[in-house]
Design a protein that fits this description.
alpha+beta; 6 helices; elongated
Amino acid sequence: MILILVSLITMKSLTALLVLFVCCQSVKIPANFKKCNRKEPKWKECVFEAGIDGLSQMTKSFPELNIPNLNPLEVPEINIEGSGRVSVNQHFNNVKIFGITTVKADKFEFDFDKKTLVLEGTFPELRMPGNYKLDGTILLFPIKGEGTGQTTLINLHVKCVLGYEEVKKKGKTYMKFVKSEVKITPGKIHFNFNNLFNGDKTLGDNINQVLNDNWAVVYEDIEDSYTELVNRIWIRLLNGFFSKVSIEEAFD
Protein backbone atom coordinates (compact mmCIF):
# COMPACT_ATOMS: atom_id res chain seq x y z
CA MET A 1 0.00 0.00 0.00
CA ILE A 2 2.90 2.34 0.55
CA LEU A 3 3.44 1.91 -3.19
CA ILE A 4 -0.02 3.35 -3.79
CA LEU A 5 0.57 6.28 -1.51
CA VAL A 6 4.07 7.11 -2.62
CA SER A 7 2.63 7.76 -6.06
CA LEU A 8 1.27 11.13 -4.90
CA ILE A 9 3.93 12.17 -2.39
CA THR A 10 3.85 15.89 -1.64
CA MET A 11 6.57 18.01 -3.20
CA LYS A 12 7.38 19.36 0.26
CA SER A 13 8.34 15.88 1.47
CA LEU A 14 10.25 15.08 -1.72
CA THR A 15 12.18 18.31 -1.44
CA ALA A 16 13.06 17.55 2.15
CA LEU A 17 14.23 14.12 1.07
CA LEU A 18 16.41 15.22 -1.82
CA VAL A 19 17.80 18.66 -0.97
CA LEU A 20 19.75 19.88 -3.96
CA PHE A 21 22.30 22.70 -3.90
CA VAL A 22 23.27 24.50 -7.11
CA CYS A 23 27.03 24.83 -7.37
CA CYS A 24 29.03 26.87 -9.82
CA GLN A 25 32.34 25.14 -9.21
CA SER A 26 33.02 21.62 -10.38
CA VAL A 27 33.60 19.02 -7.66
CA LYS A 28 35.99 16.15 -8.29
CA ILE A 29 34.66 12.61 -8.18
CA PRO A 30 36.09 10.62 -5.24
CA ALA A 31 38.87 8.18 -6.10
CA ASN A 32 36.71 5.16 -5.21
CA PHE A 33 34.30 5.99 -8.07
CA LYS A 34 35.19 4.61 -11.50
CA LYS A 35 35.67 7.20 -14.27
CA CYS A 36 35.39 6.76 -18.04
CA ASN A 37 36.84 8.72 -20.97
CA ARG A 38 34.53 9.28 -23.94
CA LYS A 39 37.41 8.61 -26.34
CA GLU A 40 38.23 5.10 -25.11
CA PRO A 41 37.17 2.20 -27.39
CA LYS A 42 35.00 0.45 -24.79
CA TRP A 43 33.26 3.60 -23.65
CA LYS A 44 29.79 2.08 -23.26
CA GLU A 45 31.08 -0.89 -21.31
CA CYS A 46 33.05 1.40 -19.01
CA VAL A 47 30.04 3.64 -18.30
CA PHE A 48 27.88 0.61 -17.53
CA GLU A 49 30.43 -0.75 -15.07
CA ALA A 50 30.95 2.69 -13.51
CA GLY A 51 27.20 3.15 -13.00
CA ILE A 52 26.75 -0.23 -11.32
CA ASP A 53 29.85 0.21 -9.18
CA GLY A 54 28.74 3.68 -8.11
CA LEU A 55 25.22 2.55 -7.20
CA SER A 56 26.59 -0.29 -5.07
CA GLN A 57 28.42 2.31 -2.95
CA MET A 58 25.27 4.31 -2.16
CA THR A 59 24.80 2.57 1.18
CA LYS A 60 26.08 5.83 2.64
CA SER A 61 25.56 9.44 1.66
CA PHE A 62 28.02 11.63 -0.26
CA PRO A 63 26.98 15.18 0.70
CA GLU A 64 29.72 16.76 -1.43
CA LEU A 65 28.08 15.13 -4.47
CA ASN A 66 24.46 15.75 -3.41
CA ILE A 67 23.90 11.99 -3.11
CA PRO A 68 21.76 10.69 -0.22
CA ASN A 69 22.03 7.22 1.28
CA LEU A 70 19.98 4.97 -1.02
CA ASN A 71 19.84 1.95 1.28
CA PRO A 72 17.49 2.81 2.71
CA LEU A 73 16.13 5.80 0.86
CA GLU A 74 14.10 7.70 3.46
CA VAL A 75 10.75 9.38 2.72
CA PRO A 76 9.75 11.55 5.70
CA GLU A 77 6.03 12.04 5.05
CA ILE A 78 3.34 11.18 2.52
CA ASN A 79 -0.21 12.59 2.39
CA ILE A 80 -2.76 11.34 -0.16
CA GLU A 81 -6.42 11.90 -0.94
CA GLY A 82 -7.46 8.87 -2.95
CA SER A 83 -10.04 8.54 -5.74
CA GLY A 84 -11.49 5.85 -8.00
CA ARG A 85 -10.96 2.26 -6.90
CA VAL A 86 -8.37 3.42 -4.37
CA SER A 87 -10.54 5.99 -2.55
CA VAL A 88 -8.64 6.36 0.71
CA ASN A 89 -7.40 9.31 2.74
CA GLN A 90 -3.88 8.19 3.51
CA HIS A 91 -1.02 9.42 5.65
CA PHE A 92 2.40 7.76 5.90
CA ASN A 93 5.56 8.78 7.71
CA ASN A 94 9.04 7.42 8.36
CA VAL A 95 8.92 5.37 5.16
CA LYS A 96 12.17 3.65 4.19
CA ILE A 97 12.89 1.95 0.87
CA PHE A 98 15.33 -0.96 1.05
CA GLY A 99 16.87 -2.72 -1.96
CA ILE A 100 17.62 0.08 -4.43
CA THR A 101 21.35 -0.72 -4.56
CA THR A 102 20.71 -4.41 -5.41
CA VAL A 103 19.36 -3.68 -8.91
CA LYS A 104 20.27 -6.11 -11.69
CA ALA A 105 21.14 -3.61 -14.41
CA ASP A 106 20.61 -4.13 -18.13
CA LYS A 107 21.48 -0.65 -19.41
CA PHE A 108 23.28 2.46 -18.26
CA GLU A 109 24.01 4.43 -21.44
CA PHE A 110 24.77 8.07 -22.20
CA ASP A 111 24.25 9.43 -25.71
CA PHE A 112 25.97 12.81 -25.92
CA ASP A 113 24.62 13.51 -29.41
CA LYS A 114 20.99 12.93 -28.43
CA LYS A 115 21.61 14.23 -24.90
CA THR A 116 19.95 11.24 -23.26
CA LEU A 117 20.61 8.73 -20.52
CA VAL A 118 18.96 5.29 -20.64
CA LEU A 119 18.60 3.31 -17.42
CA GLU A 120 17.10 -0.17 -17.35
CA GLY A 121 17.15 -2.95 -14.78
CA THR A 122 15.26 -5.15 -12.34
CA PHE A 123 15.05 -4.78 -8.57
CA PRO A 124 14.75 -8.30 -7.10
CA GLU A 125 13.01 -7.00 -3.98
CA LEU A 126 12.13 -3.53 -2.72
CA ARG A 127 10.85 -3.41 0.87
CA MET A 128 9.04 -0.28 2.04
CA PRO A 129 8.13 -0.29 5.74
CA GLY A 130 6.61 2.73 7.45
CA ASN A 131 3.86 4.10 9.68
CA TYR A 132 0.40 4.48 8.15
CA LYS A 133 -3.05 5.91 8.75
CA LEU A 134 -5.83 4.92 6.31
CA ASP A 135 -9.55 5.68 6.04
CA GLY A 136 -11.66 4.93 2.97
CA THR A 137 -12.36 2.13 0.49
CA ILE A 138 -10.21 -0.03 -1.77
CA LEU A 139 -11.94 -2.02 -4.52
CA LEU A 140 -15.23 -1.21 -2.72
CA PHE A 141 -13.96 -2.78 0.51
CA PRO A 142 -13.76 -0.46 3.56
CA ILE A 143 -10.30 0.00 5.02
CA LYS A 144 -9.43 1.84 8.21
CA GLY A 145 -6.52 1.67 10.60
CA GLU A 146 -3.38 3.17 12.04
CA GLY A 147 -0.08 1.46 12.77
CA THR A 148 2.87 -0.01 10.91
CA GLY A 149 2.85 -1.55 7.46
CA GLN A 150 5.05 -2.73 4.63
CA THR A 151 4.84 -3.09 0.88
CA THR A 152 7.20 -5.47 -0.90
CA LEU A 153 7.75 -5.22 -4.66
CA ILE A 154 9.20 -8.34 -6.24
CA ASN A 155 11.12 -8.35 -9.54
CA LEU A 156 10.30 -4.73 -10.30
CA HIS A 157 11.48 -3.92 -13.84
CA VAL A 158 12.20 -0.26 -14.58
CA LYS A 159 13.16 1.44 -17.84
CA CYS A 160 13.89 5.15 -17.84
CA VAL A 161 14.93 7.43 -20.71
CA LEU A 162 16.05 10.85 -19.50
CA GLY A 163 16.82 13.94 -21.56
CA TYR A 164 19.15 16.73 -20.50
CA GLU A 165 20.35 20.16 -21.56
CA GLU A 166 23.94 21.42 -21.33
CA VAL A 167 24.61 24.41 -19.07
CA LYS A 168 27.91 26.33 -19.18
CA LYS A 169 29.31 27.68 -15.91
CA LYS A 170 32.81 29.08 -15.43
CA GLY A 171 34.22 27.25 -18.42
CA LYS A 172 32.70 23.91 -17.47
CA THR A 173 29.73 22.04 -18.95
CA TYR A 174 27.01 20.67 -16.68
CA MET A 175 24.01 18.46 -17.38
CA LYS A 176 20.54 19.66 -16.44
CA PHE A 177 17.97 16.87 -16.78
CA VAL A 178 14.66 18.31 -17.92
CA LYS A 179 12.50 15.33 -18.89
CA SER A 180 12.17 11.58 -18.53
CA GLU A 181 9.99 8.70 -19.61
CA VAL A 182 9.58 5.80 -17.19
CA LYS A 183 7.98 2.37 -17.51
CA ILE A 184 7.58 0.36 -14.30
CA THR A 185 6.48 -3.28 -14.31
CA PRO A 186 6.29 -5.22 -11.03
CA GLY A 187 6.39 -9.02 -11.06
CA LYS A 188 4.36 -9.10 -7.86
CA ILE A 189 3.41 -6.86 -4.93
CA HIS A 190 2.78 -7.97 -1.36
CA PHE A 191 1.00 -5.79 1.21
CA ASN A 192 0.92 -6.14 4.99
CA PHE A 193 -0.81 -3.66 7.33
CA ASN A 194 -0.84 -4.24 11.06
CA ASN A 195 -3.65 -3.03 13.35
CA LEU A 196 -6.34 -2.47 10.72
CA PHE A 197 -9.80 -1.82 12.19
CA ASN A 198 -8.36 -1.11 15.66
CA GLY A 199 -6.62 -4.46 15.80
CA ASP A 200 -9.50 -6.67 14.59
CA LYS A 201 -7.35 -9.53 13.28
CA THR A 202 -10.08 -11.21 11.23
CA LEU A 203 -11.03 -8.03 9.34
CA GLY A 204 -7.40 -6.97 8.99
CA ASP A 205 -6.29 -10.34 7.61
CA ASN A 206 -9.20 -10.32 5.15
CA ILE A 207 -8.33 -6.85 3.78
CA ASN A 208 -4.64 -7.72 3.48
CA GLN A 209 -5.65 -10.84 1.57
CA VAL A 210 -7.90 -8.82 -0.76
CA LEU A 211 -5.03 -6.45 -1.50
CA ASN A 212 -2.60 -9.30 -2.17
CA ASP A 213 -5.05 -11.25 -4.34
CA ASN A 214 -5.77 -8.12 -6.41
CA TRP A 215 -2.35 -6.45 -6.41
CA ALA A 216 -2.26 -6.16 -10.23
CA VAL A 217 -5.64 -4.40 -10.33
CA VAL A 218 -4.60 -2.03 -7.54
CA TYR A 219 -1.31 -1.23 -9.26
CA GLU A 220 -3.03 -0.56 -12.60
CA ASP A 221 -5.18 2.07 -10.91
CA ILE A 222 -2.21 4.08 -9.65
CA GLU A 223 0.51 3.32 -12.23
CA ASP A 224 0.50 6.74 -13.91
CA SER A 225 0.87 8.75 -10.72
CA TYR A 226 3.55 6.41 -9.36
CA THR A 227 5.46 6.73 -12.63
CA GLU A 228 5.33 10.51 -12.30
CA LEU A 229 6.88 10.28 -8.84
CA VAL A 230 9.74 8.13 -10.12
CA ASN A 231 10.31 10.69 -12.88
CA ARG A 232 10.69 13.45 -10.30
CA ILE A 233 13.00 11.43 -8.08
CA TRP A 234 15.34 10.45 -10.93
CA ILE A 235 15.55 14.01 -12.23
CA ARG A 236 16.21 15.47 -8.78
CA LEU A 237 18.88 12.89 -7.95
CA LEU A 238 20.68 13.32 -11.26
CA ASN A 239 20.45 17.11 -11.22
CA GLY A 240 21.79 17.12 -7.69
CA PHE A 241 24.85 15.13 -8.76
CA PHE A 242 25.45 16.90 -12.08
CA SER A 243 25.04 20.36 -10.57
CA LYS A 244 28.22 19.48 -8.66
CA VAL A 245 30.10 17.36 -11.21
CA SER A 246 30.83 18.71 -14.69
CA ILE A 247 30.82 16.59 -17.86
CA GLU A 248 34.54 17.23 -18.16
CA GLU A 249 35.16 15.90 -14.64
CA ALA A 250 32.86 12.89 -15.04
CA PHE A 251 33.78 11.71 -18.55
CA ASP A 252 37.13 13.15 -19.70
